[in-house]
Queue: 2 jobs
Job 1
Amino acid sequence: MVLATQLLDWYDKNSRDLPWRKDNDAYKVWVSEIMLQQTRVEVVKDYYTRWMERFPTLEALAQTSEQEVLTYWQGLGYYNRARNLLSGVREVCAEYGGKVPDNAPAIQKLPGVGEYTAGAIASIAYNRPSPAIDGNVLRIFSRLFCLEEDITKQATKRKIDRLIRDHMSVERPGDFNQALMDLGSMVCIPQRPRCQLCPLATLCEAQARDVQDVLPVRTPKKAPLHIKLAAGIVIQSSSLLITQRPATGMLAGMWEFPTVELAEDDSTSERLKTRIKSDLQQEVCVGKRLFHYIHTFSHRKWDISFYQCQWLAGNTISFPAHWLGLSELDTVPWAGPHRKVATVLGEQFTQEL
DNA sequence: AATTCGGGGCG
DNA sequence: CGCCCAGAATT
């Protein structure tokens, strides 16, 4: 296998030194792979380190509440990853005696673990010859074999799975898969690949035809839906009034300032006032706008304004609203741009002391 | 097969 | 701004 040999020779000289590569413990590999789903290595590094300090073992994580787990995850995005990881380690404790299964099909049964992650864990932690096909691998192989099919299609993925099984190292499958990651991040990058540095350049069909810049082919994504929101900032006795988002949907279970979605034809302050009244059975007075953010998600674009609010009467709060002390803002997971506002308010509060 | 899940970094 | 990133679950 000339491809595997050249790739591993390159990897032995150029592999990245990453926090989760210090050993091949299955729990650590699992955590790192989940964090790395659709997330850049540079971002994950600090999250991973803090995570391992707080949850050094599978058992330690299994005993933790979902809210605390989400707090350690906040800012990473795709919060179902954290929920699934938590229920996954609990399942391993209950069903497998605390030991992560050692083959890809069994690993893939765990929540939040798909084909890619199962292959990555099986190959890295247990030296199984399982492909781990992510965006890097799709890009590299579409160039190596000059595949002009859309890499987001399942048929293309099956084709590449076959190619990898034909070419991967059976002695070092974990290193083979990780070498592809490193090659994809340092050499065979999305724009302007550095083919002069590539250990596989002599094997690369796209390089031979000089089409590496137009591969891979993928379908363009849809434009995000635009949503206009208004949020109310209520401060009383050094505490902020916050509400918890529903248990399902975007940013599930995370906390935010009481928020309303604005329709075309209604006034911001009236809608905000009505929402806070109905949710909290409170009279409120909406003041001036303190913050304004355009926050773009992959599929949604929030245009959100934060208004200062004041109580006029009453003191009854209906679930799930809570008062959160300005000095304990880090104890709950915040929803998106609400965290930025909370942080600013917290800093102002600290300076006033 | 298409949609829904976040967030950040970079040219 | 557009692009894409160590994807998976749901519909």
Job 2
Amino acid sequence: MSSAAGAPSDGGGDRPWQSYHTAYTNGKAGMEGVDKEKVQKVIYEMSKGSKYFENEQKKEAITKQKIEHLRAQCAKLNDNDISHFQKKILELEASRDLSKIWLHTDMDAFYAAVEILENPSLKGKPLAVGSMSMIATASYEARKFGVRAAMPGFIGCKLCPDLVFVRPNFERYTHYSELARKVFQRYDPNFFATSLDEAYLNITEVCIERGITGEEVASELRGAIHQETGLTCSVGVAPNRMIAKVCSDINKPNGQFILPNERDAVTTFVSTLPIRKIGGIGKVTEQMLHQVLGITTCQQMLQKAAFLCALFSEGSTDFFLSVGLGLGGTETPEHRLRKSMSCERTFSATNDYSLQFEKLDNLAENLADDLQKECLKGRTLTLKLKTAAFEVRTRAATAQSYISSKEDILICAKKLLKAELPLSLRLMGLRMSHLCGEKDDPTIPTQKTLDRFFRLSDNNSNVNRTNGASSNDASGGDDCNIGATTKDECLIHDAVTDISSDQHTFFSNDENIFVPEERSSVNYDNEVVSSNLLTCDDLGGTKLDGNTSNSKVTQSEKFDDLSHFTSCKASASSSKPNQQFWVDGYICSLCGFELPPCFEEERQEHSDFHLAELLQQEEALDSSGHLTKERLAERQSTTPTPKKKLKSSKEGKHIPIDSFFLKHNKKL
DNA sequence: GGGGCACCACATT
DNA sequence: TTCCAAATGTGGTGCCCC
């Protein structure tokens, strides 16, 4: 396989900056003639040693691992593995459609151009729209210095000391964007915009009706845009959208490039085209294809088709081969509904809980406002966190019903956040998905698994999920809506209630430790408890991606005084099993089960555990962590489930309580 | 084994 | 001196459930 792996050296040595790949070291319109090496060195020097830089290196290392993995896979391939590609290519080739003419238009340095238009004194100056932390757009004057979009402002300043900064003004950009769109409408009423400054137009009809060429439409459209907005744009015309987009970049700024609707023209065009120019191929994919298969141009995709088919999924392979053939979308895509709505904020890193919750409150408010503006509600809330070390985490919970109010969002979001603390954070975000319009009639999703559980466990059970929610919701919000926020939680919550007919029962399974309502009434310092008890990191660290995964921890919720139950999912292969043992032992004792001796040791070891103290304060447990006699008697009198001895198949080994519960339950 | 879901990485502007 | 965004979509993966 060595022939396929044209593994390039990745720099290093006495020129470390050469291997520091950033988004801005790639070619971008207006950056020809820039001393790339100098720019790269400046960026490297300014980034070196920062948290951001360290995180980038971490990410690079993960990419490298993936590359190694793919190389190893590649080396194992036999002749049979790599013989199934020609049919695929023929199929794709058969789908080629040269009957449509697509035009892609892209405003030149849009934000910067609008600012200059509004304030002509900026003309000719190197301009950056953005802030010291991030540049959204750089004018062409600034690009000559290597300054570009997505670059932090302070690096821009270093590259170009005279760089002028302007704060973005989206209302302005929207206004100009609308002017441009009115022009697009004339050429294709079904045009679709991909951002404020870019759009695709199917100009097939216009060309036929008016008997003009794509080139003529392009010139005319650019003229009209300039006339209507005072701004310039660049245009690409090609038989499909993928190529049209590449074409619009060729003669930027204020230019156009037309690729005729001929197969040869297309294949010639893509033959030397770097894969990075293709939309959808970013930094990581580019590196992977290059370092595993030596692919740098689109045509090489076809040369390495056999390997691509053998190494990647069908979807990915189809995409890669289409790139090689110069195929792309030719039909106007159906209007797609919004899938999610989100907002996020970066701030200076903080580990101050109150500040973090304050930020969360603001985010919830923003998101609720945005949702309500569009009359949308959603079911899945995703919390995004970026730690001070730039590590990004997302945590999601799905509510039983559709929500959009700030209060509902916040209850859910708080639970997700609490489960992650303590953390030093530099960014938080909230995203709502599983959307539906308010006018729609959102069917409450059925819990098939839950139904099944009920059928299996207790036909007489008449559990009311929502009414089962805690009544001590301090927020006063309608906790019923999101009492159980995930399917698992609904299942477990109902299972708990079902098994015991007693909300004081604890339930756990291999990966879930759930603590229902009773905990919610404990007046403890929730922040400290929830963070001391079983954080994701405590239980094995962050889940790694894909095949490299060596530790598994998933989590959903933990102790939360606002909910009627809480939960924590932890992997059985916890790196700190003691804590899980302890918790399970604790659950055992609360349920009135006899504990295997190993739990006693665990408890001794963790006698200083904060929660134990709190429980003692509550007089639920005695000094050894067992239920007090009074509480035990009370529990036994109200719990119909017979007390069982928890057997240990192997001395000192942890037995998941859930297997016990589940077995027990199924027998009923 | 397939569908649904959650999580995450990647991509684009 | 210090400083690296926001919004959104897609696809892969792994898990659970049927």
